Amino acid sequence: MELGLIEKAARIAAIAHTGQLRKGGDIPYIVHPFMIALLLTSYEFPESVIAAALVHDVLEDTDFPEVQLRKEMGEEVMTILAAVTNDDSLSWEEKRKKYIETVRAGSDGVKAVATADKIHNAQSLLAGAAEQGPDVWSNFNAGREKKLWFENAMLSMLRETWQHPLVDEYATLVAEMNKLG
Length: 181
Hints:
- The protein is an all-alpha fold.
- It has a single domain, classed as Hypothetical protein af1432.
- Helices cover about 70% and strands about 0% of the residues.
- It has nine helices and no strands.
- It has helices at about 5-15, 30-40, 45-55, 60, 65-85, 90-105, 110-130, 145-160, 165-180.
- Helix 6 (about 90-105) runs parallel beside helix 8.
- It is globular.
């Protein structure tokens, strides 16, 4: 029996992210893609979008072979991944600007994975702030000002290009982040 696309993606994510931890904590990294996939499942996104959520950081953050990922996931998932994978050859700011524009030009699936990713990251940041206070910003290379610039720019783009309840959820979280010291 052949595995379904979501199970293949879950297995790849679990293998690729083995031993990795979330920024500034002791939480296994694999929790992040699973939380994104659960959020997208709750909105009944198609299997290809949920699979893309599970493997969205595999190319960027692991040494899992792209050829193998493409073979297992197929072109639809890989198209989403191409749009949500950062170009590490660019500076931090240029990387973020390119990400925003790539997501802007992307499909609803691209916007869904990107938004759900930003939602979970924001939830994690806010939970970290509750424990660490202003020290939470030290978990981010760019610091508070640039991190908030990116989140606000991302939200602005999503409000212009995509009508979905996920955007409203993200907006609430961005407003909470903007209030943090």
